[in-house]
């Protein structure tokens, strides 16, 4: 799952070397904290959050097999 997020985020940004994903587990489920270069935050979020929503939808669909709730947080 972490690799999926990395591949999608790196394809969107101008500084792919600055893309990081931290994995945490809490009472909400598995939380993936995505951090990118400050100039690329808008590219990952998109207009009205459309790209972020699509990213979260793809990750949630991929996580169906694990029967766990998966959350993607974008750290700005």
Automatic annotation (TrEMBL):
InterPro entries: KH_dom-like_a/b, KH_sf_prok-type, KhpA. GO terms for molecular function: RNA binding. It holds the Pfam family KH_KhpA-B. The keyword Chaperone applies. GO terms for biological process: cell wall organization; peptidoglycan biosynthetic process; regulation of cell shape. Keywords: Cell shape, Cell wall biogenesis/degradation, Chaperone, Cytoplasm, RNA-binding. GO terms for cellular component: cytoplasm. It is found in: Cytoplasm. A probable RNA chaperone. Forms a complex with KhpB which binds to cellular RNA and controls its expression. Plays a role in peptidoglycan (PG) homeostasis and cell length regulation. Belongs to the KhpA RNA-binding protein family. Forms a complex with KhpB. This is RNA-binding protein KhpA. It comes from Paenibacillus abyssi.
